Amino acid sequence: MGAQQRVFKAKINSTKSLRKIFKAMELIAASRIQKAVSRVKAASPYATALTRAVSAVATQSNVEHTLTTEPEQIRRSAVVVLGPDRGFAGAYAANVIREAEELVGLLRDSGKDVALYTVGGKAESYYTFRDRKIERSWTGFSEAPSIENAREIGETLLEAFSRDYEDGGVDEIYLAYTRYKSAVSREPEYRRLIPLEVVEAEDGSSIPQPRTELRQPSFDVDQVFPLYEFEPGAAEVLDALLPRYIDSRILAALLNASAAEQSARQQAMNTAVDNADELIKTYTRLANTARQAEITQEITEIVGGADALAASGAGD
C-alpha cells in the first residue's frame, strides 16, 4: 500500500470512530429530550398559577411590598446566566451568553451596577477567562435540575435582594436563559424576576407582570382575577408567596434551559454525523484516486521496462 493510501486509510478510520461517538451522543440527547420537555410542561402550570396568585394579591390590595413595588432608584441589578455544563451543543452556550451580555450592556448604559451569577460550567468559564467578577456560581446540574437546585439559587438571590446597596445588595433580579420552543427551535431571552412590573389593564386595574427588560411584557394583561379575602393580610400572603414564586420561576427557567440544551446537542450531533459521513466519502474517493494513480504508475513502469528489454534484445 502506498503512502497516500495509508494516510487516507488512517483518516477514514479516525473519522469513523468519531462518527460512532457523535451518533451515540445524538441518541443519548434524543432520549433525554422527551423527559426534559415533560418536566417543562409539568412545571409550567404551577409557575403560571403562582404568578397569577401574586398578581391577584397585588391587584386587590394597596399594600407596598418588595415583590411588586418598584424601587425609587435602581442602582445595582443581579443578572443570572443559565448556561450548560458541557459543550457539544452547537452555538447554544454562545447564544445565551450573547443575550446576557446584551442585557448587561443595557443595564450599564442606564447607569446601573451589575452583579453576575452563573449556572453551568460554560458560563462560569466565559466570565472567569475574561476576569469578570462572579458573585456566585452553580455547576453540575444543567442537564437535570431539581427543585433543590432552584431553591438554593433562590435563597442566594433573595438574600442579596434583601441587603442594602451599601452592603452589596441588589435592587432587581434578571434571568438570562434559553426558552425551549420545539425540537428545532430555541430562543435565548432575559426576563426580570423581581420586582414584578405593574401594568395598567384596560379597566384601569393594576396587574403585576414579570418584565422582559426594557421590552413590553409578553403576557395577556386583560385578565380578570377572582375576588379574594386575605388572612391575616395581603402583606403576609405576599411574604409567604415570595420565596415560592422565586423558586418556581427559577425552576421553570432551569427546566427550559435543560430541554433546550438537549435539543441543541441532539441537533448539533446530528449535523456532526452528517459531516462525518461526507468526510468518509471524500477520503474514500481520494484513497481510490491515489490507488488508481499508483496502479497506473506501476503499469507504466512495467510497460516501459518491457519496451526497454525488447529494444535491447533487438539490438543484439
TrEMBL record:
UniProt cross-references to Gene3D superfamilies, sorted A to Z: 3.40.1380.10, ATP synthase, gamma subunit, helix hairpin domain
UniProt xrefs under Pfam families: ATP-synt (PF00231)
InterPro entries tied to this protein: ATP_synth_F1_ATPase_gsu, ATP_synth_F1_gsu, ATP_synth_F1_gsu_CS
Top-rank taxon: Bacteria
Record flagged with keyword Transport: yes
Family label: Belongs to the ATPase gamma chain family.
Chain's role: Produces ATP from ADP in the presence of a proton gradient across the membrane. The gamma chain is believed to be important in regulating ATPase activity and the flow of protons through the CF(0) complex.
The name this protein goes by in its record: ATP synthase gamma chain
